[in-house]
Amino acid sequence: LLLMLVVMAMLVWALGLRRRPRAVLAALSAAALLWLGWSVGPHVTRVSSDLAGAATPTAVAGVSWEPWSEARQAELLAAGRPVFVDFTAAWCVTCQYNKRTTLSDEGVLADFGERQVALLRADWTRRDPQITAELARLGRNGVPVYALYKNGQPTVVLSEILSVEEVRATLASL
Question: Does domain 57-172 have CATH number 1.10.760.10?
Answer without folding.
Answer: no
